[in-house]
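User
Please review the sequence:
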Amino acid sequence: MLTDIEIAQGAKPRPVAEIAQEIGLLDDEVEYYGKYKAKLSLDAMRRLESKPDGKLILVTAITPTPAGEGKTTTTVGLGEALYQMGKNAFVAVREPSLGPVFGIKGGAAGGGYAQVVPMEDINLHFTGDFHAVTSAHNLLSAMMDNHLHFGNRLGLDTRSITWKRVMDMNERALRKIVVGLGGRANGIPREDGFEITTASEIMAVLCLSEDANDLQARLSRIVVGSDLDGNPVTAKQLKASGAMALILKDALKPNLVQTLKGAPAFVHGGPFANIAHGCNSVVATKLALKLADYVITEAGFGADLGAEKFFDIKCRAAGLNPDATVLVATIRALKMHGGVAKEDLKGENVDAVKRGLPNLIAHAKNVQKYGVPLVVALNAFETDTPAELEVVTKGCKEIGVPVALSTVWAEGGTGGMELANTLLEVLKTSTQFRPLYELDQPVKEKIAAIATKIYGAADVAYLPDAEKSLKQIEKQGFASLPICVAKTQYSLSDDPKVLGAPSGHTIIIRDLKVSAGAGFIVAYAGSIMTMPGLPLHPAAEAMDIGDDGVIKGLF
């Protein structure tokens, strides 16, 4: 069996110039990064502004397990299926982070015969967007410490600083550090730390900005800490936002690539959904909606994280109205939610599927709360049995949700035809999209709405640090922002060990932080960390490059 990288390396992609011309872009709207990658000028959006939008379809998933669900693979395969049917369809997904690529999760270019290419480039440095985000973030860090060194005219309270440094790698040793050691010439000693680039507010700013002016305005609003009177200190006050925008000017432009079968794809932005808002960029999504009749996008991890943030943060901020949702599940994952170990997944176990089904049903009902119709995509494996599949079909039918089998990993777009046809029927259903909560509700009410209506919790408890941060957020006038919960992706609760569909639990909020530039409040639940660590055997150990220049071991 061929690996993902072998399949990708065997592909014969079309020149991206051909794709750009096919989708109606003008020559001066395309900036080429070699033969198969391009960035698109935002002038294209302005030119197409009056054109009606296509249909926006979100792909999300059940709670992830080590068995894998195939959300990005389904996204790409569904886009290919629609494209092969003669539909004007686009794929719009996020860029991979080097941390997971070299760690344990792997890349984010899809898999099997449902991938975006050039896969190696996309999973590595691509067009440099992540580097730009890292540099812009750390420029603000450097200017802030430089401001402290030269007298701290703004009176920034070093004990209040929430702005850490970032790098695009899993590095647990840098979670908590001390900077400024070694004498007066090396700055002011203080506690600091690193987060992964995907958790950077700059990444969220990049992905939520509508254009260059909005980007600079958001950057200027970033809060790094408070002065001694409790007032926010911003990037604008530190005179850093202009230079940050300069670093990000090209990163803001969407990246155009293609699927294995030559369907157009935007790969742009890369926030994680467990510690950030988990969606690709607004500019990529909006441009795709002007260029295509159907836009297939994804949101990270399970629907409790990525989909909730897509609906309550991205759609609200950008004025998007999603037309349908695809909820990806596998029989294997449902068995794991039903208590079966990964090594025992091959044998038929109808009872385990029944025990795990409530997780799928919970996610489906959560999507229904937003007034968006959905279809369940069962990512099929050869070990699935008719009896196991019947359990899922029957359970979804009881809540009025259609189910379609998907074999896109093995067959590409051809294996997504059943799903594509089911989706087209679902799209005939009228939508009544509505966010979960109103922005003028108190912060605790908004968090309670997410915890009780999406996570199945009975209550929310706040640790002292969270209570203190909440008072500061309210005092500084940020209480009307939406909520971005940073929570484990492995459970509907805040405990990664609790599988299935828990209910009646208490969500613990240990701290709150305002991301004024991005335009949301981050609520840290449980023990979630914003800087991952590498596993015992990182994926990097198996990677190499041969004498012929061919990359090996990249999935």
